[in-house]
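Reproducibility note. Readers wishing to regenerate the assembly model reported in the main text can use the exact inputs given here. Chain order matters: entities are listed in the order in which they were concatenated for prediction.
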Amino acid sequence: MDSHNLEEQFQHKIDQEIKIEPKDWMPDAYRKTNIRQISQHAHSEVVGMLPEGNWVSRAPSLKRKVILIAKIQDEGGHGLYLYAAAETLGQSREQMINDLHSGKAKYSSIFNYPALTWADMGAIGWLVDGAAIMNQVMLTRTSYGPYARAMVRICKEESFHQRQGFESLLVLSKGSEGQRVLCQDAINRWWWPALMMFGPRDHESTNSDMSMKWRIKRKTNDELRQQFVDMIAEQIKVLGMTLPDPALRWNAIRNHYDFGEINWNEFWQVVKGNGPCNKERLEARKKAWGQGAWVREAAQAYANKKNTRTKAA
Amino acid sequence: MQQALLDYTLYLSDNSLILGQRNAAWCGHGPVLEQDIAITNITLDLIGQSRILYQYAAQLKGGDATEDSLAFLRSEREYKNCLLVERPNGDWAQTILRQFLFSCFQRELYTQLTKEKDSTLAAIATKALREVSYHYRWSREWVLRLGDGTAESHTRLASALENLWPYTGELFKGADYELALGLDPAMLYTNWLSAVQSTLKEATLSLASFASCFMQTGGKTGIHTEELGFILTDLQYMQRTYPGCDW
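Running the prediction on these inputs yields the following structure tokens for the assembly.
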């Protein structure tokens, strides 16, 4: 069959909502886009462990400490499923990690912002995980089977994290004056970066068109961002806090909240590596990987010896 | 007697909390993702154990004591954890060996406690023992991998053994509160040593040079190493900065 027919059949499957599986024929660009997106997602989970990991030793109660550790552990687990899903497309985990370390592969820019106070743990859960879920719920229906299935499990855990984050802020909002200040300050610092998580505006997004056609994505960046603003603008009322956007108001004609302009210069600067923590995050990952080399080598050497002994016996 | 039971319960919970606090520093920084998750799992178990034990201690102490007031608001000299658990993480070899030596001890200790006449401690020990058996297996496998892996991993594990061995004697030296409860840890020594020895032997390491090793003591009665102050500074930061808040 010539490649034109293969491509037609492929698109036909997509249009019929039949999942693409690892052994199916797929266009090179589809494979590459999925590897790029899934590995970027995996890296985001792993790098995302760092800002929260930074607060484990200082969590204010044992209950919060346990919740935080369990959440970070879930993120490590998400990283694992996602690396495994990307491996089904023929890219090794080692290669993906090397690409992260060399700067070739990206991870979500949100993790280049610092987690400065305990309230940031709540704000990350509520706003960052909340924004991620918008995207991830859509991805449970993405066209590549292993990715869609990984996302189903991830979404369940993420929505739990978001509720935990909100609950943690709710406690602060009902607490002492000092706690309320922590809460509002964290919301002020994380709101705009959370909105940036949806990526550039639709007309500036380079990867969107094909991704929509191949149903890797099903909603545009701007649609998802609006959906997020509409959700958070309601939830903030429960906290009795405010969002740092004077332009935020309900628009009865559009049936959506209007909101102000994102600082796109900041967005692109962070993407380019000039965010407050880009260097630290990447260094921390490289350091962990580099210092773990002798451990991985030892495990391999031991496994080899054990195999040889079993064969000899 | 009530004081001895309280002190003993705090000893058990402090051990779990401080080792959990130490291990937690690996979260996000492990040598490979699967092991990052594994040690974080152990951390969760340990802090979980400390919570149930502090809750029991709070009940024994009465008044307005809570798991958090006991975990966060005591001073350096009031913590009763053994010195072993506050030793620095060092490299993966030192963290693994510390976990192995401690889990091996905890396994013997909790096995004994399941038969304890205080039914709360017996129930906590029964629950924790399932977790501890896993910690023991996991850390034992890593001791074997590192000891019998590469020349470098062998050297690193041998050096961890040198660093940590002097802190093992204290585990078996009964503090007043242990002896008052008739829980002399010396009884656990033979089983512990035989498990440690056989594992180290399989890992191609020997204890021969430690026969007359001088043992450090003090943690169980509140005389710690300089490390503990730093651990508590992190641990207690929020509770000290924002006193009297709910979280």
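We highlight two features of this model. Chain A has a mean pLDDT of 95. The two ends of chain A are 51 Å apart (CA to CA).
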